[in-house]
């Protein structure tokens, strides 16, 4: 059985006989409850979209819980749709005016107004007094919270990562707002539907005693609200019947954390779970061959990467990092680990960049050339000392076996890379000890090279904020991408950034485009989005 690598599939298996529904699936009135087994719910124990910038966060947040002024077309081309704003227009290169949808109700019953939008982009909620100037890196140690209500140290830097030059939001009237930027920015509309720019209730924030209390149960406008959140265990969302988009079709959605693939698959087959996420390709036949089950798949706007730490004594030499990039047979990994169901992309770029003429034609990942890699190792003078590879146990699909392949390929060219198993992302990024290589992924959330190149590797990208990578020219070019309205100049800057980050001073190596495989009960008649997000609004539920 072959999975279409680019389009979400319909049914893969026919249901045979009668299906006995487990308790969680039985109709409750006209609505059901469902249980979804996921590898991870959140990484940091909060439901704050600014604090949880991750692929696992995307799955539980969007589009069911958090919503923005502009929405992403999750089930379509991932482009913009009217959301909490019904219309928007550019007043100039630095200003956007938006008309808010009237009658939108938060989960606490309040109507959303311009006051909530202003708050959602305020210093108190995001920026902590940081200046709207791009190009300077913000580090967590400069933002230690002094009270339990202040923002976590990481949030201001994340906010300036996504909004480097936002001065603020003005309430023109109850249902009209204006976003004022300090510089021109052709991506402002995209930033409004990216991961982070969603609207929260100001009153709910004001009433929360602590940030942790608020972040465990944020009050938003989505089709489902938080009923119960147990970090590292489960998240239960319940229908928000005053949802502006119509009555939600499900009574409850329960995400349960099941780290082991076999347990997710067995629970799906037994009926304990209705969905099992993050299946590796070698489990497709098992699931799709079970009566009443199917697997849906698509490649998504996300690439798997290895990231290098320049503080490492050996990786400080770009020759060693270049050797790492030329040692890897990416196509072999795609064929062996993914059954050919994904692709090796043209570096850190996405096909969708072509729509705005920002795709760099002719660019490719570094060639697989073991002889060149050995020569680079020899030129560097590297003597075989251990380079640590901090690894999580299958946070990403096929992560551990892929890491074992990478290490073997590196060893074959004389690079002594040693796996160090870690339990969580805090351990991956812990500055104590020696860092070397770690796994990551990079997403296109704005349909522009701003994401992921600048957002992840620019001056306030996590790679620089965590002191894994730095490059003055990359930071200067980031400002060009962020502020220039000249398409040719932006494209030239992006092309140069690819040269630096993938050839001259490697920050990372791209492995392959990511793909999502979701096992589910066929009778639910639900479709997977070409994303980590799972849409359970009325238009995508027909059971």
From TrEMBL:
Xref: CDD domains: PBP2_NikA_DppA_OppA_like_10
A GO MF term: peptide transmembrane transporter activity
Coiled-coil parts of chain: none
GO cellular component, one term: outer membrane-bounded periplasmic space
Short name of any one Pfam family annotated for the protein: SBP_bac_5
Stored InterPro entries: Peptide/Ni-bd, SBP_5, SBP_5_dom
Residue stretches making up the Solute-binding protein family domain: 81-453
One BP term from GO: peptide transport
Major localization class: periplasm
Subcellular location: Periplasm
Entry keyword set: Signal
PANTHER family: D,D-DIPEPTIDE-BINDING PERIPLASMIC PROTEIN DDPA-RELATED, PERIPLASMIC BINDING COMPONENT OF ABC TRANSPORTER
Similarity section: Belongs to the bacterial solute-binding protein 5 family.
Protein known as: ABC transporter substrate-binding protein
Organism the protein comes from: Szabonella alba
């Amino acid at each position: 059985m072959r999975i279409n690598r680019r389009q979400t599939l319909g049914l893969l298996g026919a249901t045979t006989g009668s299906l006995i529904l487990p308790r969680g699936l039985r109709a409750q009135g006209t609505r059901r409850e469902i249980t979804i087994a996921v590898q991870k719910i959140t990484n940091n124990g909060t439901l704050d979209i600014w604090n949880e910038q991750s692929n696992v966060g995307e799955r539980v947040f969007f589009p069911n819980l958090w919503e923005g002024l502009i929405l992403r077309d999750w089930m379509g081309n991932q482009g913009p749709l009217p959301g909490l704003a019904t219309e928007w227009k550019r007043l100039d290169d630095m200003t956007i005016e938006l008309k808010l949808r009237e009658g939108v109700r938060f989960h606490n019953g309040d109507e959303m107004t311009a006051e909530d939008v202003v708050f959602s982009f305020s210093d108190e909620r995001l920026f902590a007094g940081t200046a709207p100037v791009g190009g300077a890196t913000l580090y967590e140690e400069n933002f230690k919270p002094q009270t339990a209500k202040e923002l976590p140290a990481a949030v201001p830097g994340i906010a300036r990562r996504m909004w480097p030059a936002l001065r603020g939001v003005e309430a023109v009237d109850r249902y009209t707002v204006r976003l004022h930027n300090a510089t021109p920015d052709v991506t402002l509309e995209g930033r409004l539907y990216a991961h982070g720019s969603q609207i929260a209730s100001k009153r709910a924030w004001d009433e929360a005693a602590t940030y942790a209390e608020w972040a465990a149960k944020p009050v938003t406008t989505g089709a489902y609200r938080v009923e119960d959140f147990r970090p590292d265990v489960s998240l239960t969302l319940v229908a928000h019947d005053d949802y502006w988009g119509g009555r939600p079709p499900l009574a409850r959605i329960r995400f349960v954390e099941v780290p082991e693939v076999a347990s997710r698959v067995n629970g799906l087959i037994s009926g304990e779970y209705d969905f099992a996420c993050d299946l590796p390709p070698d489990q497709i036949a098992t699931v799709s061959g079970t009566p009443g089950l199917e697997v849906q798949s698509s490649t998504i706007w996300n690439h798997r990467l290895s990231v290098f730490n320049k503080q490492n004594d050996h990786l400080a030499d770009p020759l060693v990092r270049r050797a790492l990039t030329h040692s890897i047979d990416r196509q072999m990994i795609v064929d062996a680990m993914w059954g050919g169901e994904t692709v090796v992309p043209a570096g850190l770029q996405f096909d969708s960049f072509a729509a705005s003429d920002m795709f760099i034609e002719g660019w490719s990942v570094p060639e697989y050339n073991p002889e060149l890699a050995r020569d680079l190792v020899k030129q560097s003078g590297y003597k075989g000392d251990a380079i640590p590879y901090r690894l999580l146990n299958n946070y990403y699909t096929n992560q551990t076996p892929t890491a074992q392949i990478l290490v073997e390929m590196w060893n074959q060219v004389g690079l002594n890379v040693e796996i160090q198993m870690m339990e969580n992302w805090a351990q991956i990024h812990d500055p104590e000890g020696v860092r070397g290589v770690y796994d990551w992924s990079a997403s296109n959330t704005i349909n522009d090279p701003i994401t992921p190149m600048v957002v992840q590797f620019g001056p306030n990208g996590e790679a620089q904020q965590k002191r894994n990578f730095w490059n003055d020219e990359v930071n200067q070019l980031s400002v060009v991408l962020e502020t220039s309205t000249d398409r040719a100049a932006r494209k030239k800057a992006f092309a140069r950034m690819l040269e630096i980050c993938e050839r001259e001073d490697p920050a990372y190596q791209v492995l392959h485009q990511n793909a999502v495989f979701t096992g589910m009960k066929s009778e639910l008649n639900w479709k997977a989005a070409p994303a980590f997000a799972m849409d359970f609004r009325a238009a995508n539920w027909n059971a």
